[in-house]
Amino acid sequence: MKYKIHHKTVYRYAEPVRRGVHELRLEPRTGPLQSVHAWQVSAPGNLSSARDGFGNIIHNFTVSGPASRIEIVAAGEVEVTAVAGMPGFYDLPDAGEARVSPLYFVAPTPMTAAPAEMQAFAAPFLAAGHDLPALLALADGIAGRVRYKANTTDVGTSAAEAFQLGSGVCQDQAQVMVGACRAFGIPARYVSGYFYDPAATELASHAWADVCLDPERGLWCSIDVTHRCVTDGRHVRLAVGRDYASAAPIRGILEGGAGETMEVTIDIATLA
Questions:
Q1: What is the average pLDDT value for the chain, to the nearest integer?
Q2: Per the confidence metrics, is the pTM higher than 0.70?
């Protein structure tokens, strides 16, 4: 599948921003599951770009002077090469690029730490190992235990909190999956991206989990807990991280800027 994507985020402030520093992870990279044919990110001021330790493309910009409105746009074309039921992929760094070991994704973070109750829930699924059927069964169990329900959590909600609450969104379901795997010594990472649903009236950012099947070879599988499946031609990857905080599409620190409102518009169209 080949997609044309347009992602616009507009922040408005009752009190103008005096100064702001922003970090964006809004540009997908070409890899084993997709090819990026064109992409552009625009924001106020000059953008600088780099790669972080996970291989993500990041952009930074600074807002100086009073600003009551900040608009960020990311747009381009991506061809997804993943196929339905793909059991795994080798995520190796580009030539001359260093990448952290999969074992780095075993340690918990405050957003993915698994309390005893969560570990007890995951244990029956992972008792015999973590092959793909076991991981898909765990994802199905999590989707039933943390039911999808909008507006019950926020970006600061931890996996433990969502598990206790029993509801959340794709971010929460993905972090519970990541936390459950890590609790049993299985490397897992959080993935941010897009999910193409032609029937949806409004599209939003999506999240799922990568789970490492073989750390020595760098063999991963990518599982969408919300849709209870291995990722396929509907998924476009943006960034990976240890949790939402390290893979968030937009992060910023502001002086001023009280009374913030945010409007996000995502359009995804298929291309021949």
A1: 94
A2: yes
